[in-house]
Amino acid sequence: MDVVDLARTQFAVTGSLHFLFVVLTLGLAPLVAIMHTRYAVTGNPLHERMTRFWGQIYVINYALGIFTGLVMEFQFGLSWSGLSRYAGDVFGAPLAIETLVAFFLESTFLGLWIFGWHRLPRGLHVTCIWLVTLTAYASAFWIMVANSFLQHPVGSVEQGGRLVLRDFGALLTNPNLVFALPHVISAGLWTGGFVVMGASAYHLFRRTAEREFFTRSLRIGVVTAFIGSLFTVGFGYAQFGVVEDTQPDKFDGVIPGTALGLMITIGQLLQFGVMLVLLPLLIKDLLARWRWLHPVLMLITPLPFVAAIAGWLVREVGRQPWLVYGKLSVADAMTPGLSKAAIIGSFVGFAGVLGLLALIDYLLIARAVRRGPGQVSLGMPDRSADPVPQPAHSL
After folding, report:
1. Is 161 helix (H, G, I), strand (E, B) or coil?
2. Burial 79-107 (b: 16+ CB within 10 A, else e)
3. CA distance 324 to 4
4. What is the pTM assigned to this prediction?
5. Mind telling me which residue stretches traverse the membrane in this protein (predicted)?
6. Could you give the CA distance from residue 368 to residue 163 in angstroms, rounded to a whole number?
7. Which among 53, 189, 220, 375 counts the fewest CB atoms within 10 Å?
8. Any bridge partners for residue 324, and if so which?
9. pLDDT tens readout for residues 55-84
10. At what angle do helices 254-273 and 211-246 cross, to 10 degrees?
């Protein structure tokens, strides 16, 4: 591999690992918000326990995902300074908004939600998790605005050898954004639904004492997976016309074609499987009672993640050799003078860190799932202020 291929591979590996965190965050956030809303409205302790259990899994994934995002930011300055010089005035604007507004607000509201249990009024506490969800989706919006510009550089003109922003509104109405954003958000719901479904199946297969808890969670997971897969597939096919108009050769390469086939196959099989098999089995809780199906649900849990990575590869690799399509090639976007040894060193370091974070994320989530709702630290009452019992004194 030459320097360009190494840098491309590095970004593909780290980008794929980061996307694993993102897609689960987008899926779990609204589910936790809905569970918390049901608890706030009904006061049912079961809904509170569901909020705390699935919320803890969301927090684990979010916390570790932050570090993978920071690694992605380092790569822009290290390997792709040519992109910043040529298109930074345009490409950097939505990224700056995402960081300064969406990400910081999301982190702030999440902190208030985490530490607001038994401290904030119930309505205000619920509002915090909904604001977390909205800012998470706002973050996804601005990231997709930036990415869609790379796919189809609208709203800019070239002056003095660099792109200058002329129409900010064109960035927000980019045809490569219109269907891609709901496609990504739906994929998140699909993924979140499968994680909830697979974890619930694990406990039901083990004949857990928390049967009602995981029967309800299983139902939520299946319904969410159905809605997510339905819209993922629908908005995925809706993008074909846009891609044909803006990047007619996108699917000609070997990797894009293979990844596209994998994504479509998984998407259609799972979508029809959920719709025609799992959804009807929610009647009279047949799916919760049929233990022989639970190992199958656990085995297919990773498939939405695989489909998501395949879709990312189609979108990113399919525009090669361009980084800004039709404007800036990948080779020209590379940092001048970057050596092969430097790329290999950073590749090993970045991939190692992200791979380790992904492994830790999986182990922590698996541990939280295995321990069940009876051992959740999120939302536990603070006993530090309780009066210390005094020893009895004999008279």
Report:
1. coil
2. bbbbbbbbbbebbebbbebbeeebbebbe
3. 15
4. 0.91
5. 20-41, 53-71, 91-115, 127-145, 184-205, 217-240, 260-283, 295-314, 341-365
6. 48
7. 375
8. 328
9. 999 999 998 888 887 777 777 778 888 998
10. 140
